[in-house]
Amino acid sequence: MTNSPAIILMVPQMGENIGAAARAMGNFGLTDLRLVAPRDGWPNEKAIAMAAGALPDIVSVSVFETLDEAIADIQFLLATTARRRDMVKPVFSSSGAAAELQKKTLQENKTAILFGRERNGLENEEVAKAQGIIQIATNPNFASLNLGQSVLLMAYELFQKNGDQLHSQNTSYEEGASLAVQKDVQTFLQRLNGELEYGEFFRSEGLRPTMERNITNIFTRMDLTEQEVKTLQGILSALLKSGHKKTDP
Known about the structure:
By secondary structure, the protein is of the alpha/beta class. The protein contains nine helices and seven strands; from the N terminus they run βαβαβαββαβαβαααα. Helix 1 runs parallel beside helix 6 (147-164), helix 4 (94-106) crosses helix 6 (147-164) and helix 7 (182-198) packs parallel to helix 9 (226-242).
């Protein structure tokens, strides 16, 4: 699929699961696999064997040390999680997520799906960086999905939606507008949190992680455009001129 969503695996542990994910991607036309700090490093012989030829001929692998680096060029990110989170974000079914990802892709935005660790999934701070959450419907008495199975299911849903040739008629963006890449969103958030710290907004160190995560959620669920992020940076600069002055990062 042209400009298809990237698949991001957060700290994958077993090479076999990476290979199974890559094989599923190859089956359904996905080519961009991103690994964040794989436990056993890369390349991985077990992953290549399990991929049955998908690696490296069909699916390309990029390795990153941090999630921020892996999503720097991504404009719309959905995170998969089976647990309820103490945060407000749009929640999609697997089918609904595929439709939303295709709509964003047709608007020429770079999209991605984030999958968590085999043992304990994603941490709240990682989910906070996504614009929405995918919850795959399973038997409530046995909701455990293997990492490779989860990637396979989402790859299939995306492939089906691509076959349906869904075209967005009612875009929520002005013609020519594109979503901001996550690198720019995170840069703004880092600057904002730095200024809030300087202004002694975080009065309780114990509550600071939760407060920062809430601030991140406010902005990541907005589907900010490039121009909106520039506007937010300009607003922050104007406010600083009227109060304290501090060198921009």
